[in-house]
Amino acid sequence: MSDLIIYDVVADLKTRITCDWTACPVPTVDFIWDEKSTGFVGSKQEIVLIQPLQEKIVSFQLHGDTWKHELPVKIDVRTYKTLAIHNTVVKEVGRILKNILRRAGATPVPFIDAHLRGYEALDEDYRNFFRGVYTIVYRDVTAFTFT
């Protein structure tokens, strides 16, 4: 089977969100597994969590030497102060994700494409806590050499 893309994708997302940020406030950007092990930074800081889901790997050609990878990723945006701040953070994350869609195939990240699948607001059950989740799907096709 070919190489996984899961860790390349999440590292790329974290770098892009951190480096391309132009709005204020600048949130903490982290992987979901880091926050689960260390706990949340504080109840007053904006945070963007990146959570890869199950990577699907399918044989793409007859002889099994090319593989198609599809990896959905959730980008969980959490803010604690006001809806205005949450709106600013969500729009900035959306802008960065939309820019990723057009850059696919460029070095050093050779993904075929990325699709922004949607945004879901999840803040109706909370008071003074705003949360929303973007879903983006990366796809890649890789050749595999039998050894």
Please describe the structure with a list of short key phrases separated by commas or semicolons.
alpha+beta, STM4215-like, 3 helices, six-stranded mixed beta sheet, 147 residues, 35% strand
Counted up, domains total 1
Biggest sheet details: 6 strands, mixed
Low-confidence runs of at least 5 consecutive residues:
none
- Count of individual helical segments: 3
CATH superfamily: Phage tail protein-like
Structure, described:
It contains 3 helices and 6 strands, in the order αβαβββαββ. Strands 1, 2, 3, 4, 5 and 6 form a 6-stranded mixed sheet that branches. The chain is elongated and about 55 Å long. The chain has a single domain (6-143), classed as 2-Layer Sandwich (STM4215-like), CATH 3.30.2000.10. The protein is an alpha+beta fold and 147 residues long.
Tell me briefly what this model is.
By secondary structure, this protein is of the alpha+beta class. The chain has helices at 6-19, 32-38, 83-103; strands spanning 28-31, 47-52, 56-59, 66-79, 113-121, 130-143. Helices cover 29% and strands 35% of the residues.
Secondary structure topology:
Layout: H1 6-19, E1 28-31, H2 32-38, E2 47-52, E3 56-59, E4 66-79, H3 83-103, E5 113-121, E6 130-143
Parallel strand pairs: 1-2
Antiparallel strand pairs: 2-4, 3-4, 4-6, 5-6
